[in-house]
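re: that chain from earlier
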Amino acid sequence: MLERGTYLMESVVACGNCHTAKGGPMARHELAGGFQMKEGPIDAITPNLTPDKKTGIGNWTDAQLIVAIRDGKRPDGSLIGPPMPYDMYRGLSDRNTKAIIAYLRNLKPVKNATRNSPT
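^ sequence. v structure.
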């Protein structure tokens, strides 16, 4: 699963394009968030997808991650705002979604608090 997740994350879904900072101290931390996206109505700072329990997804269950990826909802039920392309991920197979989660769980936890994007 990890091998499949690595392939998907580094090619097809490419979460690092948004969830890895492009400069500054967080740029060296894969998927730790902190990339500011400001274009048109979008004004967001991407969240931390590492398994850090305080600032990332470390306390999220696999079921919660599946809902986040496919439906764009956080564990508290709030919507993950644009530009998260969850509508494009709705069709991911169970196997591919679980492979992505395996990849995320395998990342080094990085402490990096970011604000939620507006809905």
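The chain has a mean pLDDT of 92.
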